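Supplementary Text 2. Reproducibility record for the structural model of the 120-residue chain.

All settings were left at their defaults, and a single model was retained for analysis rather than an ensemble. We include the record here because the model underlies the residue-level annotations in Supplementary Table 4.
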Amino acid sequence: MSNPSVPDLLHPKVAVDSSVKLRLPESAVDRLAMLGGVSGMLARMDCDKATPDVKTFSLLLELMPFSLEAENDLLSSMNFYNIEADISFYNMLIHKRNLRRDFAGARVSYTIIHVLVSHF
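Retained model, structure tokens:
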């Protein structure tokens, strides 16, 4: 889930095993990585006794790298915290998958939305 080569800058005792060149992060993905990635943010929330909700995961989805692995990690974290995705989350997921040109994955998300809507 998190990149072990990137230090968690929120941790009180940052452990850097090798020399690190400091620079301003160039993207939202880089800024999230500096904070430990998705797993680092969720672990920090656990330490602070904060409970993530669907809005937390929606914001994390916007900041994640464009990869299926990152999306699957986020979805499994949602499962772990018993958070049910809402329509807005799935719309963001469809948009992200379309930008990545993963049209089959976007169709799967679209099908899930139809199942959710039919249960109302």
